[in-house]
User: Fold this.
Amino acid sequence: MDKIKKGDEVVIIAGRDKGKRGTVNSRVNETHLLVEGINLVKKHQKPNPMKGITGGVIEKSMPIDQSNLMLLNPATGKGDRVGFRLLEDGTKVRVFKSNGEQVRA
Assistant:
């Protein structure tokens, strides 16, 4: 089970975007995530009339390592560490380490 999932609100804790917040769009592989509006790079794109792509310089979001992200705790408004807890019915849920509250599903 992953500590950070698609749709989670995260805070960047390292790198040039340190302090910014964003929403996780997708998971690229085990350790890298795509976060909306974070780690933007300029890419020179050739036009492709067959696909309807215009040429020029575009901004593209690149993957960021999950070690540079923290899950946003809505109660405190800050980044927080995540742990796991088993409920009585046997389901495994994510919880915030600071206050023990369950992460919204």
